[in-house]
Amino acid sequence: MTYKKGQELELTIEGLAYGGRGIARQNNFVFFVEAAIPGQKVLVYISRKRKDFAEARIKEVITQSPHFSDPKCEHFLHCGGCKSQHIDYLEQLNQKKNQVQDIFQKQAGIKNFNVDQVVPANPIFNYRNKMEFTFSKNRWILEGEPRDVKSDFALGMHIPKRWDKILDINSCDLMPSIGSKILNYVRDLARESNLKPYDQRSHIGFLRYLALRFGQNTNELMVNLVTSYEDLDSLVPFVESLVDEFPEITSVVNNINTRKADVSFGEREILLFGKPILKEKLKDLTFQISANSFFQTNSYMAEKLYEVILDSAKLKGDEVVYDLYCGAGSISLFLAQKAKFVFGFDIIVSSIENAEQNAIINKIENIDFNVANLDSYFQKHKSNKYPNPDIVIVDPPRAGMHKKMTEYLPKLGAKKIIYVSCNPSTQARDTQILQSHNYELIKLSVVDMFPHTPHVETVGIFEKSK
Questions:
Q1: Could you say which of 2.40.50.140, 1.10.150.20, 3.40.1190.10, 3.40.50.1240 is the CATH number of the domain covering 8-68?
Q2: What pTM was computed for the model?
Q3: Catalytic residue among 79, 82, 172, 422
Q4: Which of 48, 234, 359, 373 has the greatest count of CB atoms below 10 A from its CB?
């Protein structure tokens, strides 16, 4: 049967693809259905047709899924940040497990692959310790709004697949509830103060991002106002009003990003109130985190993740450990409590500075942090500078390891590699390379750090074949 764009047909949703779209099949042809959930029977129309698959959108739900759950968020239909919020949580876990298994079977080439362990999240709302919201003069106009409605100021999230339009957000149930109060106050205060939002098209305007960091276990709160240029005459009274309204705030910084790049990482930072860092506790360790440092965005589940890593490492106390992409040193410091010595490596200078300070705060001395571009660092600097590792931890960004690093990693000679990943697709890709160098994947755990989203954290244990 031939399918074409605009055609309507009935489909039964079998599961979720990685990324959150529903999967259906008809006549051996695959359909990816936006916002569909397993168990639904839906009437759809084809929005995009390709040779081997089609994309479709729901016109009508004919039979509702037993896994359907009323979404909590008022912005669910438009935001796209919590794409799975309309699926009951146990089924979310089941689908994530199935997705990871499918990815490793297809992309890593491991037949009959099974996930060994799934660690569920608790809590499943208000868990994020960092959120970023975008200022814009191009607000997304919702269906049903008057044609002449004002749309020249927004503070919220990008509309899916639109770089230039921002959905005004009143609340976000992924972060602590005080975050929503700050979000709304900042929006109103910015308007009253006549502070202009940045225009992504013309690159004119002052306010670019509002970034919030929460110490889930310390009750500290950092506000990062990202602007396109320095203007302390405008920001100082703004911040004074903000901290008067919210005495819970312990730090306010101003990152200045003069570049056109749509990122919240500034070229320089100005401290406007309180301390330049936020403190967070994970179990018995205390961490200092700066505005731009990487830190796991779910403190509650970070503790569970590190338990999985520690259990996988099975440290006896005489091991040398490398922690690659170490960020602010959280994994490194957990391991150093049970290892002989830990070396941490990361390219972000502020992260390494935080990591070194975290070691001092926690009185851990058997550790050494290094600024390193891991795409080429060991090829150029290894020699005899560091003792050979017994265990290597890698926790790369979503893009995975650079191929040069993946190829070089086996040359470090570690008996065990523990690969932590927020992207199972790139982890599966790197698994192929590691297995070609005689490292066998013996266990994979799924840790649900991000409920109601398509994202998941995985921990793979690789051991060198004898």
A1: 2.40.50.140
A2: 0.91
A3: 422
A4: 359
